[in-house]
């Protein structure tokens, strides 16, 4: 039998339950999921930690440049004979929204899920990439500048 006593963890959990009005052992609102975001060349990469979440319990939606990631960590399968001894991992729905700029191509977002990490790749739109503009002059000389 596994037993662990951490009075401060239990106090924090109790305080959360009292403030949120949640029943013991539950979470009343979606919790934020940890994320890293960085630019790699011509795309943005966003990684979400979702340990213990199956691939079919993840939803991705884009509407008006708002990317919504929703995941659900479900109870472990078991019958009536299972008695939980320690329950520290939050269960339920986790949600996060990202506001994407107009310079990102939301039509070509790709998603991979491996080892509990959801990785999104969001390409930079062609219209936002630097390009060269040719300048015409009256003397017949042409000069290119980078915009």
TrEMBL record:
<dbReference type="Pfam" id="PF00011">
    <property type="entry name" value="HSP20"/>
</dbReference>
<dbReference type="InterPro" id="IPR002068">
    <property type="entry name" value="A-crystallin/Hsp20_dom"/>
</dbReference>
<comment type="similarity">
    <text>Belongs to the small heat shock protein (HSP20) family.</text>
</comment>
<dbReference type="InterPro" id="IPR008978">
    <property type="entry name" value="HSP20-like_chaperone"/>
</dbReference>
<dbReference type="InterPro" id="IPR031107">
    <property type="entry name" value="Small_HSP"/>
</dbReference>
<feature type="domain" description="SHSP">
    <location>
        <begin position="26"/>
        <end position="138"/>
    </location>
</feature>
<protein>
    <submittedName>
        <fullName>Hsp20/alpha crystallin family protein</fullName>
    </submittedName>
</protein>
